[in-house]
Amino acid sequence: MPELKNSVWPMLEKISESRETAAHKELLEGQKKLADCERREQRLEDMRKDYESRFLSAESGRVQTVGDIAICRSFIGHVEGLQKLLGQQKNTLNEKIEQSESARMTARMEVMKWNHLNERDISNAKARREATEQRVIDEVALTRFAYRKSM
Question: pTM (2 decimals)?
């Protein structure tokens, strides 16, 4: 009986494990980028609030030039544009994270499948080997029994 020395399941399991590792790295990278994006978004929000408060304080009391007010409004507009871009980037990163998580889960399921198939083959080979050994023992016992009876 051939042993399972050339079984394909362990090799497929290793390939799936490497896919799972790669997907996990992508997931961590995406989460890191998302956290960085959220920090940048918070900084932009803080800047926007700061400039809005300056703009409102300028309107309420101090006399500022029209140019200063225009610059402040323009800056706030630029910050809001950047916030929209960051929102789009966050959506893209969230999609990437979901895809990476899905790929990781798929690879994990494959690892478990290949592992199960390998264990099943090992178990089947062991059962065949034990059946063969039992058959040999039974044949030896029958031969001995027949030999003793014939004497």
Answer: 0.70
- Is 2 strand, coil or helix? coil
- Cβ-contact 107, 23 below 8 angstroms: yes
Q: For 82, phi and psi rounded to 5 degrees?
A: -65, -35
Q: What sign does the CA torsion over 4, 7, 11, 13 have?
A: negative
Helix 9-60 × helix 66-150 angle, to 10°:
160
In order along the chain (151 residues), what is the average pLDDT of each group of 10 residues? 69 93 96 96 91 72 72 87 95 96 95 94 94 94 87 74
**Integer distance in angstroms from the first to the last C-alpha of the chain?**
35
| pLDDT score for 151 | 74
The residues near 132 (Cβ < 8 Å, ≥ 6 apart) are 1
Whether the CA torsion 66, 72, 73, 78 is positive or negative: it is positive
Dist. CA 80–CA 82, nearest whole Å: 5
